[in-house]
Amino acid sequence: MNQRLVIASALASVMALGLATTAQAADKAPKEKCYGIAKAGQNDCSAGAHSCAGQAKEDNSPTEWKYVAKGTCKELGGKSESEAKGK
């Protein structure tokens, strides 16, 4: 086998593993449900209107929510779970 090809493949594998590890670390950051910010078809779930993810029919429906980084919901114009449910 060509030595350059082997080295290039090994380097690409190492780089891909590094990117995967970074992505997993980002997924473990604290998140919260943010109601009223999901675009049509881009919700993470709903408060009872349908079975779940990706089924929002309209943008910014108050019953649809997305996961966002903890503490950023207000900045995005959304409501917390307790605010959305009128508590």
Short key terms for the protein model shown above:
87 residues, 33% helix, 15% strand, alpha+beta, single chain, 3-stranded antiparallel β-sheet, elongated, 2 helices
H-E string = HEEEH
Task: Indicate the overall shape.
Answer: elongated
Mean pLDDT over all positions: 80
| Number of DSSP-assigned strands | 3
The tally of domains stands at 1
Structural class: alpha+beta
Low-pLDDT stretches: none
Number of helices: 2
Distance between the termini: 67 Å
The share of residues in helices is 25-40%
Main sheet overview: 3 strands, antiparallel
Q: Could you give the order of strands across the largest sheet?
A: 1-3-2
Provide the gyration radius in Å: 20 Å
Strand portion, in percent? 5-15%
Tell me what you see in this structure.
The chain is 33% helix and 15% strand. It is α+β, with helices and mostly antiparallel strands and 87 residues long. The model has no long low-confidence stretch (mean pLDDT 80). It has helices at 3-27, 81-84; strands spanning 31-35, 45-46, 64-69. The chain has a three-stranded antiparallel β-sheet with strand order 1-3-2, with no helix packed on it. It is built from two helices and three strands.
